Amino acid sequence: MLRNSSRSVFKRTLASHAKPQVTELSNGLRVATHANDQSASATVGIVFGSGSTAENPYNNGVSSALGNLFKSQGALPAAKAGVQLSSTVCKDSQSFLASYSGAGLNKSLDILQTQIAGALGSASDSAFAQATQQSLQQAEEFELNNHAGRVVEHLYSTAFQNTPLALPVRGTAEALQGLEKADLQNFAANHFRNSNAVIVGSGNLAHDELVKAVESQLSLQSGDKPVQKKQSSFLGSEVRLRDDTLPKAWISIAAEGEAVTSPNYYVAQVAAEVFGSFNAAEPSSRLQGIKLLDEVQEYHLCDSYNHFSLSHKDAGLWGFSTVISNVHQIDDLTHFTLKQWNRLTISVTEQEISRAKSLLKLKISSAAVDNVSIAKSLGADTLALGSASDLSQVFEKIDAITAKDVKSWASSRLWDQDIAIAGTGQIESLFDYMRLRNDMSMMRW
Amino acid sequence: MIGSRMRMLAARQYHISAKDSANKVSTLAVRVHGGSRYATKDGVAHLLSRFNFHNTGNKSALRLVRESELLGGRFESSVDREYITLKATFLKEDLPYYVSALGDVVYKTSFRPHELPESVLPAAKADLAQAETCPVKSSEELLYGVVFRNDLGNALLYDGVQKVNLDDIKAYADKVYTRDNIEIVGQGVNEGDLKRFVNDSLFASLPQGTSLAKETTPKTYVGETRVRSSQGDSVAAIAVPVAKSDFATYQVLATYLTSALFDLSSVIHKAKLDTYSNAGLFSLYVKGADAKVVSENIQKVVAALKKGQDISVAKEAASLQLALKNETDLFSEQLSLDKVKDFKLGKFSYAAVGDVSNLPFADQL
Amino acid sequence: MPQTFTSIVKIGDFILKTPALAKVVVPVAQQFINFSGYRKLGLRFDDLIEEENNVAQKALGRIAADESYARNFRMLRAHQQSLTHHLLPKAQWVKPEEDTPYMLPYLLEAEAEVKEKQDLDNLELVK
């Protein structure tokens, strides 16, 4: 009723609303754009379908080093031309992006072309060494200071052990120490190819213009798409990095989730949003309509938590990460949380689902507002799904989800399913695997 | 007819602006000249900002959160030196609800006595604890204090040094939440709709008041300050007050120093220009775990800046940076960077935080 | 809780508003107060309210600091009197005009919060 009263008042569409467009060039290279003529800047770039999953335990971190090479070598020409570079490594993809304002398209493509050529070998030996060194530093810094992030990476490594998704995106210190110029070059030569790339553009640019410019200015190597040797597969398991010198406990627990291509992709997202995220320091966060919060708050079981549904090319994780200062009641937190997960299968209400759907729509639509993140997700979507997802269609899909869908998804994915557990800090009272695994179902309800 | 004319007049007294977009999500922000520089007691602005979205005469905080999450929206309130900003992000079709909710907060917050100790103070304390773990933020705070002393130099967050009670907060709210002192901005919002809904909301009942915005150039000082701290890295920072006419130069300078165009950019943690209605502050931070290295680096950077640098090469990069910032920020600022040429560092203020025994003094720079 | 303070206050208001009822009930209530004798121990009526529950704890946390101090003092004094099997000297008995409901408004507010939370937790979606 809340919504109906306001919705009828006002509904408008905008003429400038441009849908994402994809064109495939004769050489197999795809160009995808999501234009927005109200924007004062634009972002162009290349997204390759190779991230940490394309690496192996011996060259793990090579994508990160190539990203650093791109940024450090391109920094000077980019700054002179008024272009900003960024590069992000994900599990399944890596983006090399350049943002510009006004008539910077040609200059940006030039820089991209030069830097990709640099990665293939034209950059100096010292530049390669420096980029690898930088990646090593970043990986060490991450291990040392980002406990929450570290726990999630270890969650991946135990959940998908011995399969591609296990490798951390920043690489491991051991692998990075052994990396040489040839490793980076080979990796670039095998993966930075037409068949494995999408040229992306977002912001104030025209699709046709970009297509033309790419045809005349940008050329990548031809060749077949590299084949992934192994499928990622989930294995219930745990990893503990107990460290009582740290002030708190960081824990992450997850069951197997959905792949990006899964028809249940959004169902899993809605299910995660039912529990959403919580931050005890934020007054409004404590008032959310999440049943789990009643127990969490009465005993101050955690400082914050975040439920996630992380999806990748061939597998995903569904679960939560949490930061705990009440380290003697970790068992209560995990018990109550997993019991609430049980409810997704047996008694989640329409009202909870409706709330989750609204918040998911808000999350998705407010995540991609700047051109760089739009370009990144455009590239990742095009690589994974063949086309960019249009927000209106996404909203329709989310709107169609009911409590029944969530229940049937949860009954196959969560109810009595194996879990992966990772934790660091003061985790003495984190129960052993079987005790936690037993909470994934109930004898009676 | 006359009724609607009158209402239109009322709308004109508000500074309302809106930019529509094709996005599915809208953002609505109410910006109040009520930041720490206007504070009647240290920290009162922070506490008022934290009091936003608590119980109002029409709706409890709980109901607001629960209704809003069913619609798909979230609220946040933030404080800086100039503004208290109330922001709502929500799915596009729910504009009327959020305009009226924000109007409610600004006009009718009930300021129940128990909310202060139960909810507002713990949140404010968490903000302070969070800020204190960051040596860069601490040194920024110190630099503001040294350069402006009061006004822009007031403490941003509530630390309990001056006791603030509920009546102080209420009086401060009455002072800053007035029609002429606030500005409403929508993104992804139709301007006509926004004006109409503002008139139908409690915003229309706010007293007229006067704008507190300051236009005369504040008095600035040069000084140095040092704070021993074991929280995180050591930081050496310098700051220069900037007159309005020099904003462009320092904007370009900030970009120049952090881009590859400047040889020493890798040792600079952050360089930025904060702009306010009547003044600005340029600040530069060098950070590191080893105070001796920080000391060497800040000396190198300051020496290079004293020698003078041709910063005109960074004009394009700076204008891109501005464009990118304007795109995501609700409140855009325009600066003409054309005339920027070179820069030479003159007098500056200095702050050292961390292992100060190994950090230089201002006269050693 | 079988009876909430909200409902008690509602019934009380109804009785006071109905002259016929008030005529009967008010004198009985006065008599009850006299017989129960708590004023002779220096207590107020709100001191007798059961406090071992979340609502009362919340209300107690919210009353003004001086009220809270005075309440504790009255309770200590009453315990002492009870221990020694003495009533207070008559001059120190709580006078009817002093026996004000200092805690009731807070109890009502806390109860309203609990009720609102329960209502919102159990919203039904209307399509």
Task: Describe what this molecule looks like in 3D.
Chain C: GO terms for molecular function: quinol-cytochrome-c reductase activity. The complex is a heterotrimer of chains A (445), B (365) and C (127). Chain A has 445 residues and is of the alpha+beta class. Helix content of chain A is 45%, strand content 18%. In chain A, helix 9 (265-275) crosses helix 15 (403-413) and helix 10 (291-298) packs antiparallel against helix 11 (330-346). Chain B has 365 residues and is of the alpha+beta class. Helices cover 38% and strands 20% of the residues of chain B. Chain B has a 5-stranded mixed sheet with strand order 1-5-2-4-3. The N and C termini of chain B lie far apart (69 Å). Chain C has a single domain, classed as Cytochrome Bc1 Complex, Chain F. In chain C, helix 3 (54-62) packs across helix 5 (104-121). The chains are: A alpha+beta (445), B alpha+beta (365), C mainly alpha (127). At the A-B interface, helix 1, helix 2, strand 5, helix 12 and helix 14 of A face helix 3, strand 3, strand 4, helix 4 and helix 5 of B.
Brief overview:
Chain A: This is LADA_0G00760g1_1. The complex is a heterotrimer of chains A (445), B (365) and C (127). Chain B is of the alpha+beta class.
Describe the structure using short key phrases.
heterotrimer; A: 445 residues; alpha+beta; Cytochrome Bc1 Complex, Chain A, domain 1; 2 domains; 6-stranded mixed beta sheet; 16 helices; 12 strands; globular; B: 365 residues; 5-stranded mixed beta sheet; 11 helices; 38% helix; 20% strand; disordered N terminus; metal ion binding (chain B); respiratory chain (chain B); Cytochrome b-c1 complex subunit 2, mitochondrial (chain B)
Give the helices and strands, then pairings.
The complex is a heterotrimer of chains A (about 450), B (about 375) and C (about 130).
Chain A: H1 2-7, E1 21-24, E2 30-35, E3 41-48, H2 62-81, E4 84-89, E5 94-101, H3 105-122, H4 125-145, H5 147-159, H6 173-177, H7 181-191, E6 197-203, H8 207-217, E7 237-242, E8 249-256, H9 265-275, E9 277-279, H10 291-298, E10 304-311, E11 316-324, H11 330-346, H12 350-367, H13 371-385, H14 391-399, H15 403-413, E12 419-425, H16 433-438
Parallel strand pairs in A: 2-6, 7-12
Antiparallel strand pairs in A: 1-2, 3-5, 3-6, 4-5, 8-11, 8-12, 9-10, 10-11
Helix pairs in contact in A: 2-3, 2-4, 2-7, 3-7, 3-8, 9-12, 9-15, 10-11, 11-15, 12-14
Chain B: H1 2-12, E1 15-19, E2 25-32, H2 44-51, H3 61-71, E3 73-79, E4 84-91, H4 95-108, H5 115-132, H6 135-148, H7 166-176, E5 182-187, H8 191-200, E6 224-228, E7 234-242, H9 247-258, E8 270-275, E9 280-288, H10 291-307, E10 309-310, H11 315-328, E11 342-343, E12 349-354
Chain C: H1 5-17, H2 19-36, H3 54-62, H4 65-83, H5 104-121
Helix pairs in contact in C: 3-5
Main location (chain C): mitochondrion
Pfam families (chain C): UCR_14kD
Function (chain C): Component of the ubiquinol-cytochrome c oxidoreductase, a multisubunit transmembrane complex that is part of the mitochondrial electron transport chain which drives oxidative phosphorylation.
